[in-house]
User: Which sequence fits this backbone?
């Protein structure tokens, strides 16, 4: 255990988050996302897991992971097929966590297959225990300034 670090953040996840650089993408996905096969194509090359609901995982990750402030697509959600403007409860919950750290409101909407392609180019994929559909999100890493902790 470490003080001041959310207990959901296991050693493998912390290693990956620390290793990522400015502009690298992180995918946080639900249980239905093809996480293992997609993760094999990422920079890290292996799947990370945190067995908790998506919003809890996002809150834990964003407690240590800065969002990119130089781009419009630093936080995105997989859009509902055929309903790109639909916002499901899981999306609202994650949006609240993104907004709490000053991230974009709203997150961008990413078409399903475009999301898969972005995920394959990501640094890493974290599969959550989220059982609700469309609990898939992309986050682009920002920077920590010299004055920040």
Assistant:
């Amino acid at each position: 255990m470490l003080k001041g670090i959310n207990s959901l953040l296991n050693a493998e996840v912390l290693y990956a988050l620390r290793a990522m650089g400015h502009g690298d993408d992180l995918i946080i996905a639900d249980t239905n996302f093809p996480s293992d096969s997609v993760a094999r194509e990422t920079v890290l090359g292996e799947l990370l897991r945190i067995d908790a609901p998506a919003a809890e995982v996002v809150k834990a990750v964003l407690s240590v992971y800065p969002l990119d402030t130089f781009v419009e697509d630093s936080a995105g959600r997989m859009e509902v097929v055929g309903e790109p403007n639909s916002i499901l409860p899981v999306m609202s919950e994650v949006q609240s966590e993104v907004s709490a750290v000053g991230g974009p409101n709203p997150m961008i909407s990413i078409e399903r297959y475009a999301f898969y392609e972005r995920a394959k180019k990501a640094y890493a994929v974290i599969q959550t225990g989220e059982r609700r559909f469309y609990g898939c999100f992309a986050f682009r890493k920002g920077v920590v300034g010299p004055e920040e902790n």
In short: The chain has a mean pLDDT of 97.
